[in-house]
Amino acid sequence: MIDLTAIYVLWLREMKRYFRAKSRILGSLAIPFFFLAFLGLGFSGMAVPGAGGVGYIQFLVPGIVGMSLLFQSIFAGLSVLWDREFGFLKEIMVAPVSRVSIVLGRTAGGVTTALVQGLLVLLVSSLVGFRVRSAAGVLVALVFMVLVSTTFIGLGLVFASKIKDMQGYSIIMNFVVFPLFFLSGALYPLGNLPAWLRVFSYLDPLTYGVDGLRGALVGVATRSLGADMGIMAAFAVLMVGLGAWSFERSESA
Amino acid sequence: MAARMDDIRVEELTRKFGDFTAVDRVSFSVAGGELFGLLGPNGAGKTTTINMLSTLLRPTSGRAEVAGFDVVRDRDRVRRSIGVVFQEQALDGQLTGRENLEFHAMMYGMGREERRRKLDEVLALVELSEKAGVRVQNYSGGMKRRLEIARGLIHEPRVLFLDEPTLGLDAQTRRHIWDYIRKLNRERGVTIILTTHYMEEADYLCGRVAIMDHGTFAAIDAPGRLKDLLGGDVVSLEVEGEPGPLEAELRAVGWVRNIKFHEGVFSLTMERGDRRIPELVALAQNAGVTVSSVNLRKPSLEDVFLQFTGKTIRESEAGQAERNRAMMRAHRPGRGR
After folding, report:
1. Does the first or last residue of chain B, that is N or C, have fewer Cβ atoms within 10 Å of its Cβ?
2. If we measure between CA atoms, which residue out of B285, B245, B243 comes closest to residue B265?
């Protein structure tokens, strides 16, 4: 059922593609960088109510890491669309390999690139004065990165099975990805939102990812690390399962 | 072709997309080592048939066995026994030619040493050894096609499916691909099923062809025998005027085997057509129509197609456009064809 070689081959392909597209790596760092530079520096002198007494840069960076994971992972899940568009998906589908292995291989590739991305953002953040709490904190943050990216790769796969063209792609970016980002508390403490809007925040998996990253990296969080990690892990399992299920359904006619 | 059993056995295979029946109770079998062609216009159901045989599409009803395994119950075994070259290109342009093949070999569980040996071998076969390190996005159309054929062979499949292998290639490259296909079949004994809407391709390559139209087989036999069925030469008689009386006369003479009238042209089959032309012209005059041109030739598969479907393949294609649209509408999003 689970074919490790197939997972490895699919992962390897993602790696080759990722590291070959240097301009894409650079491009994907641009948005996090601008957010950090303009929001972070622009608000740097202000005290943000509910931010736990840390400066805005410290508050913002985990949110921006979460944001790049979200974008990168949804994109990785949706990349099935590209493979379908360029025909390569058939080559994958006709191989004697289970559908679950295909989904896991793709997820493994997506998670790895998201981790690279997350670490790059942390690196860039240190340029604008961000300091992590401890090395152990970074390790815990890595666990959160894996969970966040797994969750959104799963969501990307669900969407990839539902939409069939590139127009659907921009609809998803505008009506799903951006709301997920803004509702997650990446940019401001959720306590400042009106209660009715906060309900949506609690439904957003990224909320727990950002809170966990913040707890791990700067020691400020609304929930305990354990609670965030538990909820995030549940989301990850649920979404990747849902992604695998929709992929299986849409591709085995 | 002796000792091997049938590599493909298909019984009443049917596939519907909503109300639209793409493949309609098709039955046939292909012996081991055969080079078998599905000939028909776009939308006739060839690709749908191939997709079912290669396990990418579930049949609505009926059954099919490939290399002795059921395409629904034994999917993985079928997949291990077949190679597929799809109609649309299925390469990763970001990877080099060799990496594309490597990906395939690993997906089929081949070990490192075996992989290296096999990749060298198939690359040499399609004469791409020197370009193996180049990214596929920089390949020409013909090179991509050859790479895909090479890829289909890596895991030494018993059966190779080629869906429109020369679509969109120039005449010279087409010739080249034909040579590879022949070589594979003759020297390695690979059973090959190919679909095409090029008459000359089916004629040149295939030991047997099935003429497919509107999801069913109109005829199935060796190209030569299909042409013989028409009996002798084909004389096309382009006429002006009322064709009815001439048709009656032609039926009366006894030596015209077959009469088709289509858009002002009689297609007649007869022995020694060259000697009958003066007589034909005289008959036309008696029947009060003017002959504007006469053409004599040996029958081609095009004539066979006309004979069995009542249309030329191009007209059939035009009629299929509406069917194709119906098929797309009935299609759920996200499925391959």
Report:
1. N
2. B243
Q: Please, where are the H alpha helices in chain B?
A: 46-53, 75-81, 97-107, 112-125, 141-153, 171-188, 199-205, 223-230, 244-253, 273-286, 301-309, 313-330
In the structure encoding, which two tokens stand for residue B321, read together? 């456009």
Cα atoms found within 13 Å of the Cα of residue A90, Cβ hemisphere only? 24
Structure tokens at B174: 């087409």
Contact of B254 with chain A, judged by CB distance below 8 Å, is answered with no
3-state secondary structure chain A: CCCHHHHHHHHHHHHHHHHHCHHHHHHHHHHHHHHHHHHHHHCCCCCCCCCCCCCHHHHHHHHHHHHHHHHHHHHHHHHHHHHHHCCHHHHHHCCCCCHHHHHHHHHHHHHHHHHHHHHHHHHHHHHCCCCCCCHHHHHHHHHHHHHHHHHHHHHHHHHHHHCCCHHHHHHHHHHHHHHHHHHCCCCCCHHHCCHHHHHHHHHCHHHHHHHHHHHHHHCCCCCCHHHHHHHHHHHHHHHHHHHHHHHHHHHCC
Of B86, B93, B106, the CB nearest to A90: B86
Q: What is the mean pLDDT of residues B173-201?
A: 89
CB–CB of A43/A49 below 8 Å? no
Torsions phi, psi for A202 (to 5 deg):
-70, -20
Amino acid at B268: L
Chain A residues close to B106, C-beta within 8 Å: 5-6, 8-9
Q: Where are the domains of chain A?
A: 4-251
Buried b (16+ CB within 10 A) or exposed e, A104-132: bbbbbbbbbbbbbbbebbbebbeeeebeb
- Edge-first strand order for the sheet with B20-31 is B20-31, B6-17, B61-66, B69-70
Q: Which residues of B touch A164 (CB under 8 A)?
A: 333-334
The predicted structure's pLDDT at residue A52? 73
Cβ–Cβ below 8 Å for A94 and B333: no
CA angle B91, B168, B337 (to 5 degrees): 60
Say if residues B158 and B128 touch (Cβ distance below 8 Å).
no
Question: Which residue ranges form the domains of chain B, and what is each CATH number?
Answer: 6-223 (3.40.50.300), 232-298 (3.30.70.100)
The rounded distance, in Å, linking the Cα atoms of A37 and B263 is 74
* Stretch 54-93 of chain A: residues touching chain B, C-beta under 8 Å: 84, 86-93
**DSSP string over B262-320:** ETTEEEEEETTHHHHHHHHHHHHHHTT-EEEEEEEE---HHHHHHHHHSS-HHHHHHHH
pTM of the full structure: 0.81
Structure confidence by residue, pLDDT tens digits, B163-173: 998 887 888 88
Chain B residues in contact with A5 by the CB 8 A cut-off are 106-107, 109
What torsion do the CA atoms of B277, B279, B285, B289 make, to the nearest 10 degrees?
-40
Q: Is B48 on the interface with A (CB under 8 A)?
A: no
Do residues A89 and A80 touch, judged by C-beta distance below 8 A? yes
Residues A95, B90: C-beta atoms closer than 8 Å:
no
Q: Which residue, among A13, A78, A94, A166, would best test binding to B if mutated, counting the most B CBs under 10 Å from its CB?
A: A94
- Give ipTM to 2 decimals: 0.86
